[in-house]
Design goal:
Elements (H helix, E strand, L loop, with lengths): L1 E7 L7 E7 L6 E10 L2 H7 L9 E2 L4 E8 L11 E4 L9 H4 L7 H6 L12 E3 L2 E5 L9 E5 L3 E3 L6 H21 L7 E5 L3 H13 L3 E6 L2 H9 L4 E4 L5 H7 L6 E6 L4 H10 E9 L21 E4 L7 H13 L9 E5 L4 H9 L5 E5 L2
Parallel strand pairs: 4-8, 11-12, 11-14, 12-13, 14-15, 15-16, 17-18
Antiparallel strand pairs: 1-2, 1-4, 2-7, 3-5, 3-9, 3-18, 5-6, 6-10, 7-8
Helix pairs in contact: 4-5, 4-9
């Protein structure tokens, strides 16, 4: 089977639209006809050489579509099901899976840097040579082959361009606030960084019952969007003091929970300074794994708790349908996260706009 995909041949090069070939489905595989795929900063990091993967590779990990075929032994999903694809397949029986930490699954972590599928093989080829898969999906294509457990069935009523957002950014931000933070009703929460992940954390904090949600960013447009999604207080960190705002709302203590979603050393430091003694810090952003980030030691004292989360405590089979239904009943807002809809052929300009900070999410749609 042949179809089009955006292929990255080398870092710092433009993606090329190529005709690729898919291998036959193995037992447990699912072929998804991609209907929408969103551009994420993690994809951009690979393009720019900040996140190393073997090349050539098909990027894309925020993906939704329709099940086109299934391999032997697959009972669910079924052909015709609408699905959101999870990038965290896991074995279910290693040390970390047994300890309810599927994001640390030993097979998942060992195969991920090799950019192969979860069975250790590549499913795509170009001119007879193997293509690599980013994050077990390779979603910037007309079709993708994924493990059955990664194709999570969601209500057919949710539009695919909104459904795909659930697969990464929304799950990560919402889950951090609603799952990881254990936020008490009436808490004062701060979210640093108002991209797709941070804006989803704003919504998660609101729905978890926070009494105040402080949104922090350098972009006034994104701050206004944060207000529309539930932030009660806005701070432009370029000209205003987020720490003072947190203390002003808490009798001088600081925020009960700070969720960092900016991926910048300044944001990591701010999270530690702005949280109260005994408060919770959740880091969602990231910098290069070999980069050092310095802190004032006193900012880490006072029984503060720091957690780094990659996927917001996701349990996709539970959470993706829940988030889809929350969108359909009006509780969760997703329309506002989409700044631009583009064709596959426009993917390079979409990433350029993402790098310039012009979009929250640009979404590739396939007719």
């Amino acid at each position: 089977m042949k179809f089009r995909a955006a292929v990255l041949h080398s870092p710092r090069e433009a993606l090329a639209i190529e005709t690729v070939e898919a291998a036959p489905l193995a037992p447990g595989d699912v072929l998804v006809r991609v209907r929408a795929a969103s551009l994420c900063h993690t994809d951009l990091e690979v393009i720019e050489g900040q996140l190393a993967y073997p090349m050539p590779i098909v990027l894309g990990h925020e993906t939704a579509g329709v099940v086109d075929r299934v391999g032997s032994g697959v009972e669910r999903p079924r052909v015709g099901d609408a699905v959101v694809v999870s990038w965290n397949p896991h074995c279910g029986h290693c040390f970390y899976c047994d300890h309810d930490q599927p994001i640390l699954c030993e097979t998942y972590l060992s195969l991920g840097p090799k950019a192969v599928q979860f069975d250790g093989t590549t499913k795509l080829s170009l001119a007879g040579k193997p293509l690599h898969h980013m994050m077990y999906i390779a979603g910037f294509a007309e079709y993708c082959i994924v493990p059955a457990d990664s194709a999570v069935v969601v209500p057919r009523e949710i539009p695919f361009d909104r459904a795909c957002l659930i697969g990464c950014g929304v799950m990560t931000g919402f889950g951090a606030a609603a799952r990881f933070a254990h936020m008490p009703v009436g808490a004062v929460a701060m979210v640093i960084g108002c991209g797709a992940v941070g804006l989803s954390a704003v919504q998660g904090a609101r729905l978890a019952g926070a009494g105040a949600v402080i949104a922090v960013d350098l972009d006034d447009g994104k701050l206004r969007l944060a207000r529309d999604l539930g932030a009660t207080h806005l701070v432009n960190a370029g000209s205003e003091d987020a720490i003072s705002m947190a203390r002003q709302l808490t009798g001088g203590r600081g925020a009960d929970c700070v969720i960092e979603a900016a991926g910048d050393p300044r944001a990591f430091r701010l999270s530690a300074e702005a949280v109260r003694p005994g408060g919770q810090i959740i880091w969602l952003g990231k910098v290069n794994v070999d980069r050092e980030v310095a802190f004032r030691w006193g900012s880490l004292m006072g029984e503060k708790r720091i957690v780094r989360s990659s996927y917001g405590g996701a349990r996709p089979q539970r959470d993706f349908p829940l988030l889809a239904r929350a969108y359909l009943d009006g509780t969760l807002k997703l329309d506002e996260l989409i700044s631009r809809r583009i064709r596959l052929e426009d993917i390079n300009e979409g990433f350029a706009a993402l790098k310039r900070g012009e979009v929250v999410r640009a979404v590739i749609t396939f007719d």
